[in-house]
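Final report, Chapter 2: Outcomes

The project's central promise was a pipeline that accepts a single protein chain and returns its three-dimensional structure in a standardized token representation, suitable for archiving and comparison. That pipeline is now operational. To close this chapter, we reproduce one record exactly as it appears in the project archive, with the input sequence first and the structure output second.
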Amino acid sequence: MTRVPSDLTKHELVTVLELIHASLSVNTEEEFKSLLSRVEALIPSTHTIICLGKIDAETRFQSFMKMVNISYPLDWIRLYTKEDYSEVDPILQSHYGRFKTQIWSETYRQATSPGELKFIRDADTFGLSEGITLGVACHRRSVGSIFSFAGQSMSDHTRHATILEYLVPHLHVALMRTLSPSSTQNPDLSHREREVLDWMKEGKTSWEISHILHISERTVNFHVQNILSKLQASTRGHAIALALQQGLIGP
């Protein structure tokens, strides 16, 4: 079973595992929206939106390709488009090129330009002042996802970010599957690579895996890089999500 943080409550642990399992059977946008509605209840998020953006070789944002709106105010989306806020949105600009977890309030504190400050004021009028954004870069398709969860109740940033960091790689794979559900081809992983992948799924570090399998940490890292390359994954979490989707490892 996929390892999740031990400091979560029993309810949170069970729900996270249920959501990961449910993500494996998502094939349509409606199923994806239904899954994200369940995520909203866990965080809790009152405003959730997911976008896919075209990226360049350095994973920098080029243009929007797809938007899945779960609960964002439609008037805000219209204003965002009208004002070309993608040019000054500090969350969007900080996300692409890095794909690191962002706490909105921390990013907003670093904003200084008039355009950024106007964006922040306008977003606040729609209840979009507190939130978390994260996502996954898919180099093979030259796309990157951005998952944004907002809400005034999201004050426990550490806990919510931890939950989302485990969920989003799986949600990203589910989202990509709604675009082309039958395009996946299982890669040819060696027996050792599957062993390493199985222990990665359990949350083991390279050092821990090296002791379990009685091989050097350098050899483990070599296998990890091969796994990422064969699965065309950007992170270990992304690789685990892809492997679960393709049945390379058990849930």
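Archive annotation: The chain has eleven helices and six strands.
This record, like all others produced under the grant, will remain available to the consortium after the project formally closes.
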